[in-house]
Every structure is written in structure tokens, then in C-alpha cells.
Amino acid sequence: MRGKNFGIFALLIAIVVVATWLEGNFVAAANLKTLIRDTSLYGLISIGVAMVIITGGIDLSIGSLIALCGVMMVQVIDVRYERYDSVGSIVEIERPEDGDTRLRMDAVMDPIRAGDRMVYAGAFSESQVYLTGEVTQDGNVWLTTGNPVRSLQPGTAVSMERIRYTNPLLACGLVLLAGALIGALHGLLVTRAHLQPFVVTLCGLLVYRGLARVWTGDDQVGLGSALADFKATVTGNVFEFPLPLVAKLSGASESWSEWTWIAFPFTGVLLILVAFVAWVFLEHSVAGRHLLAVGENEEAARFSGIRTERLIVMAYVVSGLLAALAGILFLLEWNSVQPGSSGNFYELYAIAAAVLGGCSLRGGRGAVFGVIAGAAVMRCLYKAIVVLGIEQQWEMVIIGGALLASVLFDEIWRRYQLWKSAKSVATS
């Protein structure tokens, strides 16, 4: 296991070095931030599927569950507008070359929040202007919008529509609960109905994608201008950290001594928290050791008094929960979900990252930090393809080749360990 973990980290470093040598922009600050964000998002679902793989199972439904949970989040948020009967007029309009357009009204209004919209009579029909907030200057309240709204002029009569939606934290909680329940259903079908994990989750892959498409009429759905502050927090940066040499390698500076500050996104913090909990569970808890024992030999674990069914169900619950979390995060990143395509092949990326990171498809083996390194390898390979200008058609070929190489290495390493154990027994 340690040998394979060392190998995946060595592979990650090799990819970064080669890609940077071929194209310095690979380590540009913006690109590194994107790599951290993408690794975090894919790392979360990889940890979830790793828990299932450790038990000797598989979860093929992750991509479809991400799409379904994204659609569910949109439906639960339930963005709607309520029109106020009061009508006011625009007194003054400022349209700076840079920045938001500002509008001053002739009446005192309730505070505006991002997503509220102003409605007025256009040339042919009713027109709408989405507002981003308000600012106060010299005692006057100005409404702001990112639209220059050339059709609006002082004296235009307008009315307001206030945006309404479910509390985002409550909505996230409901979606996460749904993901956990779906995972529990998978676990119960595997343990109680004695169905094969491949069959159960393959059916889930088809059913959840179909439900997402039926729920939305196969149309793209999104949050629009709702949850602006919440989205800014979740998709924003938490802190910055310095890196040496990056400025010179990326061509941003001529000096080798200059340090570059790299933004660390909120999703990266989530990954760290989830990874820490998973690491403590696997490496420093009795239940984690029991989970590894279940994957190594379920029957022997059962005879040893381990509640194998409960642990297997728990693994699927974790996988479903993290898939639901990823569905929420991807929605907030994209602001919309396409039920027919969102999340496509993500289950394969997650499985590949888990296998690359040291999980054996036979079960019984897995390391959290190796899985994260596997996710990083997958995203670095993808980003290298983009930065180096390689045709996108090669993405699947390269990722598939990396996965095949990892599986071959896993088999060679397993046989080497068996040979080493047999040799030590023979010589003792």
C-alpha cells in the first residue's frame, strides 16, 4: 500500500513537472486555483466511492445522482417573484464606463437585495431589469444593476418584483438528506436483497438520470440571479498562500525570487474537512478497521462478530451523501444543471481516482490521501491536455490508459506481496 501511495504522488509530481516544462502557463496562478477547485470537487466524490470500493462494492450511479441532486436543489430553492403594487419613477440614471449602472428613485423603498428586479413598460412589451443591490451616497439611495438599460430614461414609471426562495442552508440539508437516503437504499439492496452492487448502482445510473430529465422536462434549469451572496461564498476564496518559482515558470515575472499568491477556494476547505474525517475513520477508529476487514473477507468478518451489513450500508450512505454535496457544489459553480449531460462519466472519474489512489477493486484496501492524489492526477491530466493544446478527443484515451496502468500496477504489486510473504514463510 505504501509503495502504491508513493507511486501515485510520484506520478502527480511527474505530470506537473512535464506539463510545466512544456508549457509554463500550467502553473499560472489562475490555473493552479482552478486545479485546486476541480480536484476538490472530484476528490469529494472519489472519497465517497472509495468507501464503497473498500467494501468490495462499486457505485456507478454517482454522475446521475449529481445531476438529480442538482435538479433537486433548484426545485427545493423554488425561485419566485412577488410584485409590489406600489409604482415609482426614476429620477436619475448614471451609466459609468466601468462598473454597475445606478438608478435613483423618487420614492423610499424597502432595501433591495441581489436578484430583485424592476419592471417597466418597454417598446413592445413589459421589460425587466435585474438589480444587484443598492448603495447610499450623499444621503441618496441608488439601485445598482449590471445592465446599462439604454431603454430606461428619467421619468420612467417602474414597479418592483422581490425575489423569494427557500433558505439555502435548509435546501442544502434536504438535498444532502435525499442523497444519504438514496445511498442507504443502495446499501439495503446489496445487503438485504443480496443484489450485486454493479447491478444496483447501474440501475441507479439509469433511473436517476431519467428522473432528472422527467422532473425538468429535459430542459436546463438553474438558479438565475438567486442566492448571489451564498454562491459568492461557496464558490469564492477563503485565503491565499504563497508559492515560489511560479511567477518565473509561468512567465509572469523575470525574477526567480518573486513569490506568487495562490487563491484557495472554499471547496478546497470542504475537501480538507471531509478527507480529515475519512482519514481518522479509516486509520484511527475500530469501525474503520472493521470496514477494511469487510472488504478483505466479508464472511470471515461476519464470523468474527463484525456487523458487516451495517458497515456496507454506511459506505453507500457516505457515497450518496458526498455525491449530493458535489451536486450542490457543481450547481453553484455552473449556476445551472442540464439533466441530460451534467455529471456524465463522473462516476468513472471517481472510480479511476480511487483506484489510482490505492483502492483495490477486490476490496479491503484504501488510503484517503492516495485517493485525493488520484483525483489530482486526473484533473492535472485533463488540464495538461487543455494547456498543451492537445485535442480534447484524447482525454478519454489518456485517462483510460492511466487507469489501465494503475490496475496493472495494482496486480503486479499484489503478486509481489504474495510472493514476498510466501518466500518469508518458506525461509522461516
From TrEMBL:
* CC annotations in GO: plasma membrane
Q: Predominant location of this chain? A: membrane
Q: Name one GO molecular function term.
A: transmembrane transporter activity
Q: Which UniProt keywords apply?
A: Cell membrane, Membrane, Transmembrane, Transmembrane helix
Its localization reads: Cell membrane
Q: How does it sit in the membrane?
A: Multi-pass membrane protein
Name of one Pfam family that matches: BPD_transp_2
Question: Which chain regions cross the lipid bilayer?
Answer: 45-74, 169-189, 259-282, 311-332, 344-361, 368-390, 396-413
The protein's name is Ribose ABC transport system, permease protein RbsC
- Species annotation: Rhodopirellula islandica
